[in-house]
């Protein structure tokens, strides 16, 4: 009876440790799910044979596609790159990125609604041959950069002399017309 009691107690402690380990695993899984679902970055996990294993909620918000809309990587590429030439170029870029984990791919995709968005893709190959791909929408950033470029060009090519200084009088910009009118006075203009 004493030996049976010992085995019972031992079995009880093994089961208790197993329950604690399962509770910890569930807690970690809940944390990862919370992170994946709460982050404002699209996330996809692709299987080694090209099937979509997981996508987070923001991926759907970003692209309009649900996991049920995507029947593998080739189907996904045909949806976001309807033009076969662009699709082939994108596929080449993605293969390259798969071999070089620090490569960021910037591509304009078509969403399910037909809207075009500029996306930064980052790929990480996992140890079990799956791939984790993140998508960041940079559409508005690229539009802002284009507007800023047009503004800078207009200022630079203006026939009006334009110089800029900070509130303390530090001169930090002058356009060509300013140079033509006053000469290049550099970063330290003479006091007036």
What can you tell me about this protein's structure?
With 192 residues, the protein is of the alpha+beta class. It is built from six helices and seven strands, in the order αββαααβββαββα. A hairpin with a 5-residue loop joins strand 4 and strand 5 (131-137). The chain is elongated and about 105 Å long. It starts with a helix and ends in a 10-residue tail after the last helix.
Concise summary:
By secondary structure, the chain is of the alpha+beta class.
Topology readout:
Elements: H1 2-38, E1 42-46, E2 52-55, H2 57-63, H3 73-80, H4 84-99, E3 104-110, E4 116-125, E5 131-137, H5 139-157, E6 163-165, E7 171-174, H6 176-182
Antiparallel strand pairs: 1-2, 1-5, 3-4, 4-5, 6-7
Cα radius of gyration in angstroms: 28 Å
Number of strands: 7
Query: Which spans have pLDDT < 50 for at least 5 consecutive residues?
Result: none
CA(first)-CA(last) distance:
105 Å
Q: What value does the average pLDDT take?
A: 88
- Please state how the strands of the largest beta sheet are arranged side by side: 2-1-5-4-3
* Main beta-sheet strand count, sense and barrel state: 5 strands, antiparallel
* DSSP helix fraction: 40-55%
- Helix count from the secondary structure assignment: 6
Beta content comes to 15-25%
Structural class: alpha+beta
The helix-strand sequence is HEEHHHEEEHEEH
Shape: elongated
Keywords for this entry:
6 helices, two-stranded antiparallel sheet, elongated, 49% helix, alpha+beta, 192 residues
